[in-house]
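Data card: per-record layout.
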Amino acid sequence: MGKTILCACEDVTLSDVRRAFAEGHRDLESVKRYTGFGTGPCQGKSCLNAVVQEMIRLGATAAEIAPFTPRPPVQPVTFGSLAALDPEALPVDHGVPVPALPAPPCPGPSGPLPERADVVIVGGGILGLSLAHQLTLRGVREVVVLERSYLNAGASGRNGGGVRAQWSTPTMVRLGLRSLKLFGSFAGDTGVNGWFRRGGYLFLAPDGSQVKRLERNQAIQREQGMRTRILSPGEACAVVPQLDGSRFVAASWNPDDGVVFPWPFLWGYADAARSRGATVRTFTPVTGLDVQGGLVRAVETASGRIRCDTVVNAAGAWSPGVARLAGVNLPNRPTRHEILVSGPMKPWLGPLVSALGTGLYFSQSQRGEIVGGMGDPDEPAGISHGSTLRFLARFSRALVGYVPLTAGLPVMRQWAGSYDVTPDNNPILGAAGPANFLQLNGFVGHGFMMAPAVTEAMAEWMTGREKDEIFDRFTLDRFASGGGVGEDFIIG
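The structure for this 492-residue chain is written out next.
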């Protein structure tokens, strides 16, 4: 019975679904992410009902089996067909906005809340969970992480998995290098495989101004010990022979950057923190902060109240809403960024490739799928996870232009997540408003790749050890005083 296949596309068995449910993944979206069912070519058409029936048998509620949104088209369409569409003739479809606070109707919370905690972390993305992991490593046991939805529901579970140290400022390069080292040790530290592979990053420069940008960055990166090289089109095509070398004039190449599979990192950090006494509660939106005498005294949730010593706002695109509960105004501006995955083809792409000036980026998974995204300069501010035909047309036209052999490849699925954008593209860290209300947000599109290093440093500081200079450099009040050096090497 346990060998019964429920999802033929992804080889998901009945026992896989039962194990996921037993380990606390009770809602359909979490089971989908944990097992992979419904992510193959059929997109759930052949397996959704079977999984739902088994979850009902196991005791799932009606809210917990609410199905994920079907994504058109019904029949696969190739990149070549989509590239033939005129993106400018297609509207900027804002989709259905995602509510800020509180969360939409959902399953009940994943367990009772403690009455008090040393630290309450608002946001169960990689930043919040990695911080819980780092704090508990240093002996802090009464840590509570509150996630408004399921793990991997936000930007951490919706990104392309790229992790790099190619940045334009020494601080970001240093953090990127440290994160890469921690990504490399993650499996050994947690016992969870994040599928980290150092395929490198290859940035393509379409003109001389972008080449100068890459050369400036290379000088900074070389000072930090990186192996970044500036390549000619011919040299870049030796790294990725399928590229059309006529589309760019130079490239920047660091072989030590890499790609991960994002979802396991959240599960691994959550499990590691729990094993040392932390509490991680999903489907528990924060509804209020009790501020008295210049301190946050308690966190109010839909499931109860938690007295606390420190609150960390790690809610990503939802951070401004959380901050307002404490009377703090953040300048963060959330914007939607769309992404897709193709059908599989023979592996041919080692690095993640990004075309500067367009926002295009793409890599290839270990199963041969192309995973990529592309920002839209006309995208308005706001939290929206809707998917659009305009994105498909823009991405396909750009991808086929750089890699013509992808024209016949079908798009398998698409989705969207939110960048958490600050005016200088750097994060907001440290106290804001109440002295014990710490910010850990505003990472634009690079929160995932910076999380291991930043949360390690933050845990050191919060437990009375060394204070990294980033907690003086990236405070909220920098915007009132004119700010510092901005980060301009943002892609997507």
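Known properties of this structure: The domain at 5-69 is CATH 1.10.10 (Arc Repressor Mutant, subunit A). Confidence is low (pLDDT under 50) at residues 100-105.

See the next section for split statistics.
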